[in-house]
Design goal:
There is one protein chain. By secondary structure, the protein is of the alpha+beta class. The chain folds into two domains: 148 residues, no CATH class; 172 residues, Heat Shock Protein 90 (2-Layer Sandwich), CATH 3.30.565. It is built from ten helices and seven strands. The protein has a five-stranded mixed sheet, covered by helices on one side. A two-stranded antiparallel sheet has the order 1-3. Helix 2 packs antiparallel against helix 4, helix 5 runs antiparallel to helix 10 and helix 6 packs antiparallel against helix 7. The relative contact order is 0.07.
Amino acid sequence: MFSIRYRYFFILLVAIYSYLNIRFTIGERLFDFSLPHLHLFSILLLVVFGIWELNRLAEINLDRLSVFLKRKIHPLIILFLISMLNVVVVTMASMELLYPLLKMPLQINREHLTLLAAFGFRVNLFLNCLHAIVYFMNRLKKSQLEAERLKKISIEAQFESLRNQINPHFLFNCFNVLSSLVYRDADTSAKFIAQLSFVYRYLLYNQEKKVVQLVDELAFLNAYIFLLEIRFGKNLVVEKNIDPIDEQSFIAPAVLQMLIENAIKHNVTSKSHPLQISIVSSNGWIEVSNNLQEKEIKEPSTKVGLMNISERYGFLSEKQVEIEKTETDFTVRIPLLTVAEA
């Protein structure tokens, strides 16, 4: 506080206030003799200025003093004790300057020093109280900023952890498909590899992004569906109905792919029981639903799918992912994000 930019202005204000206070309470007789107005104001200004500046020097070197004392005493206490000594020094120096101005002999008058010191101690206490308030406000602000910084780092780390779960899970399934396909159809395998290359290139390019445009996500999804159709044929039917306006919205990368993958993982996909998946956008949401035909023997869950999506959107949007399960259908609704949210 003592090193603030406009300290001289505040020193002048304190001196003016002190002068007016003394002028209207005890008049000109601060001591046992009358003081002209200019001399009274000058001595008060000198005391305030001296206390403030010496305290400023003490504040600048406060860290060194704290280290010297091995931080066993609070910095504010150290500064206050030093400021008490500063008052004594400033008081004595001011009186020795005042005597020549009044054409009085230099002397050490205990009564004069006591009266001026009493004024100096009151000013010093006031300044130290202000300094303590500013000190703790700055500490609070710094703590809040640090807490926000740590919170942001924590959220980014959690988000990164969730995002990094996508690629290994996706690749594991794709390589299983490719390993069964390569021995049956070389040409189809080549197309599969080309589409897989596009899909993985998309994931690599967008893995550092929190969100992507829906139009880009749909292009990626078309390549992914092509891979699925090679494996499942007519056993899997994926229908899309996307409003062209919604294509300019944003979505978390690979979310739609994960929902399709999740539907296939937990439901029967066969010629007699084809799995039907629909992807529809409406009113700022995109909905992925499938007919419910759960497998009797359920695959072990890695808990990556729906939990991953819900937690990621907890970071991205105030709207929550909606999940609805009925006797016939399973539906997940994802909020589309605007440019501001993205």
